[in-house]
Amino acid sequence: MTHISDIMTKDVETCSLGDTIYEVAMRMKELDVGVIPIVENKKLMGIITDRDIVLRCIADRQPPSSKVEDIMSENLFTVSPDTTTQEAARLMAKEQIRRLPVVENGELVGIVALGDLAVRDLTDNQAKQALSEISEDDGEQAVH
């Protein structure tokens, strides 16, 4: 059985609560990523996605100098490194999310994306099912 620790990205780039939305957006551009976890003292505080920036900042006419904590998602679904890939895929499908922070003892230790699951040979097609269910959603829900 494959566990999240076997497929997660371990060296996750993060930002802090004191960063501005502009700084986070520039970091996303530099790294060519669409999500950045927000961490303080190694503790996961939230996540901000490129979609959060568009909907909660630009569309709401928030200035780019606003603090990231003003628009980040705080009520997150997370998994531990010993979570199975099947359990993670089921959670992603149920909650309509594409990325899961991996937390151990309250600290961010990695992140797993739906794509990470999709490249694995999951015998029960959990990644395929998760992607199918998430894609059916209209995309209104951000990372939790």
Principal-axis shape equals globular
Helix-strand topology string: HHEEHHEEHH
User: From the alpha-carbon coordinates, what is the Rg to the nearest angstrom?
Assistant: 15 Å
Highest-level CATH class:
Alpha Beta
Output the CATH homologous superfamily.
Answer: CBS-domain
CATH architectural group: Roll
Instruction: Provide the number of structural domains.
Output: 1
- Assign the structural class, choosing from mainly alpha, mainly beta, alpha/beta, alpha+beta, or little secondary structure: alpha+beta
Placed side by side, the strands forming the largest sheet appear as 1-2
- Number of DSSP helices? 6
Largest sheet: 2 strands, antiparallel
Q: Measure the end-to-end span.
A: 26 Å
Portion in strands: 15-25%
Residue ranges: pLDDT <50 for 5 or more in a row? 138-144
Mean model confidence by pLDDT: 86
- Under CATH, the topology is which? CBS-domain
Strand count: 4
> Helical content, roughly?
25-40%
Descriptive report:
With 144 residues, this protein is of the alpha+beta class. The protein has a single domain, classed as CBS-domain (Roll), CATH 3.10.580.10. It is 35% helix and 18% strand. It has six helices and four strands; from the N terminus they run H-H-E-E-H-H-E-E-H-H. The protein has helices spanning 4-7, 21-31, 50-58, 85-95, 114-118, 126-136, and strands spanning 35-40, 43-49, 99-104, 107-113. The strands form two sheets. It has a two-stranded antiparallel ribbon. Strand 1 and strand 2 (43-49) form a beta hairpin. Helix 4 runs parallel beside helix 6. It starts with a helix and ends in an 8-residue tail after the last helix. Mean pLDDT is 86; it is low at 138-144.
